[in-house]
Amino acid sequence: MIVIVDERKLVTDGYNSLFDREGVASAGFASGEFDEWVESAADEDVKSVRAFLIGDCGEDAVSPRKIRGRTGAPVIALSEHHSLENTLRLFESGVDDVIRKPVHIREILARISAISRRAQEETSFTEIGAMRIFLDGRDPEIEGQPLPLPRRERRILEYLASNRGRRVTKTQVFNAIYGIFDEEVEENVVESHISKLRKKLREKLGFDPIDSKRFLGYRLVG
């Protein structure tokens, strides 16, 4: 999920619509609401955020370092002021990147992926047994052969791979794939997506690589 922070509801609504067209969950906040949410939200909610986009919030209204205290997700400033002084000020505040507006939504997603790759020591994929799972939107490979997956199933597999070695709950998977504030989709839809994903992986691998335990969640195994 992508979080956008901007005082103008028209702006956050616009970004929500653009991300939705790309199949990416997002949520918009005004700076006061966001500050309260960052301090009070559960760890599993904060850690389901893929990146934070900080727009027009007034100087020092949002602290990138406070965000960094809760999660390692990229913090990117969206700047309408194309001056060197403003760009340097934003970097000094602790953001990972500064993007000058106007900008295409796909460029924002590409920059988020690039920052995340660097944070993962330039590794753009995870290998688990015969599976190579990419973290940049490409379909996974099994024994070198692509396995085409619907977007939701692919993103669930990516999320499980990025949490390799840890068990994640159904709520965490839902938040990462649909967003924390999506009230139009039932959380149980995760079970349906995972059931379909397991069937496809089992057919290719000969075993079920998704270990699940009731009330504890899911874990990807090799």
Tell me about this structure.
The chain is an alpha/beta fold. The protein has two domains: 2-120, Rossmann fold (3-Layer(aba) Sandwich), CATH 3.40.50.2300; 125-220, Winged helix-like DNA-binding domain superfamily/Winged helix DNA-binding domain (Arc Repressor Mutant, subunit A, Orthogonal Bundle), CATH 1.10.10. It has helices spanning 9-21, 31-40, 43-46, 64-68, 84-92, 105-119, 151-162, 170-178, 189-205; strands spanning 2-5, 26-29, 51-54, 75-79, 97-100, 125-128, 131-134, 141-142, 145-146, 210-213, 217-220. A five-stranded parallel beta sheet has the order 2-1-3-4-5, with helices on both faces. Strand 8 (141-142) and strand 9 form a beta hairpin. The model has no long low-confidence stretch (mean pLDDT 89).
Topology:
Elements: E1 2-5, H1 9-21, E2 26-29, H2 31-40, H3 43-46, E3 51-54, H4 64-68, E4 75-79, H5 84-92, E5 97-100, H6 105-119, E6 125-128, E7 131-134, E8 141-142, E9 145-146, H7 151-162, H8 170-178, H9 189-205, E10 210-213, E11 217-220
Parallel strand pairs: 1-2, 1-3, 3-4, 4-5
Antiparallel strand pairs: 6-7, 7-8, 8-9, 10-11
Helix pairs in contact: 7-9
